[in-house]
Amino acid sequence: MKKLGILIMSVMLIAVGCQSGPEEESTTSEHTEHVNSLEDVHELTASIETLPSFLSNHPDTIADIYARVPHYQDVIEHMPCYCGCGETAGHRSSYDCFINIHNDDGSLVWDDHGAKCPVCLEIAYYSMELHDRGASLEEIREFVDDRYQEGFAEPTNTPMPSDV
């Protein structure tokens, strides 16, 4: 548990000072407005190396998170999202906020939901950073659940990593 505390503190310090992390703290009222007022855009690309064109309307920090997400599928697909997208968009995990379909041929159908949502961006960012620092899926999941359990929407129905 001490190891997880050190990892979390490291990620929090990096997130606060890092240009590639989420830039603003989200609130439930802002996000509820987002979920109810915008429809998601899906875009097919031939591979993970080709980012969707809808990212041209967003800051580079968001494109940086999108570029990393497909490489962390085994982590992010086990993390719930707390933005309300489980009910409004049918998402099953945080991975669905960024990738709608990951085809066997390597092509992807991207989802712009994550690009519009600070909660989605944070969960993906923290999950990837904690994983890079050696945290287990269970430790990352505990961090996400603890951080977003109050003041956010109900989480997606994402099985715990040990349940899959």
SSE order and pairing:
Blueprint: H1 2-17, H2 28-37, E1 42-45, H3 60-68, H4 73-76, H5 85-88, E2 99-102, E3 108-111, H6 118-132, H7 137-148
Antiparallel strand pairs: 1-3, 2-3
Helix pairs in contact: 1-6, 6-7
Pfam families: PCYCGC
Signal peptide: 1-20
Keywords: Signal
Summarize the structure.
The chain has seven helices and three strands; from the N terminus they run H-H-E-H-H-H-E-E-H-H. The chain has helices spanning 2-17, 28-37, 60-68, 73-76, 85-88, 118-132, 137-148, and strands spanning 42-45, 99-102, 108-111.
Textual characterization of the structure:
α1 crosses α6 (118-132) and α6 packs antiparallel against α7 (137-148). Residues 4-37 have low confidence and may be disordered. Helices cover 43% and strands 7% of the residues. The chain is mostly helical and 164 residues long. The radius of gyration is 15 Å and the shape is globular. The two termini are 23 Å apart. Pfam families: PCYCGC (PF13798).
Give a quick set of tags describing it.
164 residues, mainly alpha, 3-stranded antiparallel β-sheet, 7 helices, 3 strands, 43% helix, globular, signal, PCYCGC
Sheet with most strands: strand arrangement: 1-3-2
Helix content: 40-55%
Please tell me the overall pLDDT: 82
What is the count of helical runs? 7
Shape: globular
User: What is the rounded Rg?
Assistant: 15 Å
- Biggest sheet details: 3 strands, antiparallel
Count of folded domains:
1
Please state the oligomeric state of the protein chains shown.
single chain
Report strand %: 5-15%
Q: What structural class do helix, strand and pairing data support?
A: mainly alpha
- The count of DSSP E runs of length 2 or more, i.e. the number of strands, is 3
Distance between the termini: 23 Å
Element string (H = helix, E = strand):
HHEHHHEEHH
Uncertain regions spanning at least 5 consecutive residues: 4-37
Pfam family, one: PCYCGC
Signal peptide: 1-20
Keywords: Signal
